[in-house]
Design a protein that fits this description.
The chain is an alpha/beta fold. The protein has a single domain, classed as NAD(P)-binding Rossmann-like Domain (Rossmann fold, 3-Layer(aba) Sandwich), CATH 3.40.50.720. Helices cover about 45% and strands about 10% of the residues. Helix 1 links the parallel strand 1 and strand 2. It is globular and about 45 Å long. The protein starts with 8 loop residues before the first strand and ends in a 23-residue tail after the last helix.
Length: about 280
């Protein structure tokens, strides 16, 4: 049977590992063509996955086509190459997923300006650049979607003061996305943010947030992939301009048992999510 994304094309920043790769694999299983941009071409001891290994996994998972581009979302030429390659290979773009992101939880005084700049360039500028490059093609789609993996705008002192630079960059991703949703020219598109309720067992959790112990209290990336599929498989007219949480999206679609995603009885809540 044809999948829910049969014949549609998804484009993504990042995607060689973690949540991004899980979404690409899920989209491929639903019949989508996928194109992604990632900057890892050689195995890293702390970061599994490369552009090449991701392409192989995606090809094995689905019947659609795959384009993997080696490059950085900060590079406008790489972004253009990704978009042009997807359009040339598949005839258009139906879904844009802004996944690439940099995590640094340092306090203001402890954060070097070079790291501040990196977060703003990847998280905010990268989201704007890829979305902007896709818009003309997305408007031609019969069911155009944009999804940014960024959080609800929780303006509490807890999150504003925890790591101001990272908070700015992730809220910036959300604001860019919500702003594009509000533009009259994009009225036909579904433009939303998606964020996990709990921490997700990725390299970032292992390397930055607490090692394997923290990963054991985190859910599998598949929960974000499943939520993303529910969003982008739905008609674009169903919703736009929303900041969504994975668990809420799945509950809306009749899923109430999240035990299969791991994390134990009480997985850790993610950053920007209050109890």
């Amino acid at each position: 049977m044809a999948g829910r994304l049969e014949g549609r094309t998804l484009i993504m920043s990042g995607g060689s590992r973690g949540i991004g790769l899980a979404i690409l694999l899920a989209a491929a299983r639903e019949g989508a063509n996928v194109a992604f941009l990632a900057k890892t071409d050689k195995p890293h001891p702390k970061l599994s996955g490369t552009v090449g290994s991701a392409v192989e996994e995606i090809e094995a998972a689905g019947s659609g086509g795959v384009v993997g581009i080696l490059g950085d979302v900060r590079d406008d030429h790489a972004v253009s190459r990704l978009v042009d390659s997807a359009v040339e290979a598949f005839g258009g773009i139906d879904i844009c997923v802004n996944n690439a992101s940099v995590l640094n939880l340092s306090s203001t005084e402890d954060l070097p300006m070079s790291r501040f700049d990196l977060m703003q360039q990847v998280n905010v500028r990268g989201t704007f650049a890829l979305t902007r490059a896709c818009l003309t093609h997305l408007r031609k789609s019969t069911n155009g979607h944009i999804v940014s993996l960024s959080p609800p705008l929780n303006i509490s002192n807890r999150w504003l003061g925890a790591h101001p630079a990272y908070t700015l960059s992730k809220y910036g991703m959300s604001l860019v996305t919500l702003g594009i949703a509000a533009e009259p020219a994009n009225a036909s598109l579904s433009v939303n943010c998606l964020w996990p309720k709990t921490t997700i067992a990725t390299a970032a959790v292992v390397n930055i947030l607490g090692g394997e112990e923290a990963a054991g209290r985190s859910r599998d990336p598949q929960i974000m992939a499943d939520a993303a599929i529910e969003i982008i498989a739905a008609p674009a007219a169903q919703r736009t301009g929303q900041t969504l949480v994975d668990e809420d999206v799945l509950r809306e679609n009749g899923i109430a048992d999240f035990s299969k995603y791991g994390g134990g009885t009480h997985p850790d809540l993610d950053i920007f999510v209050d109890a």
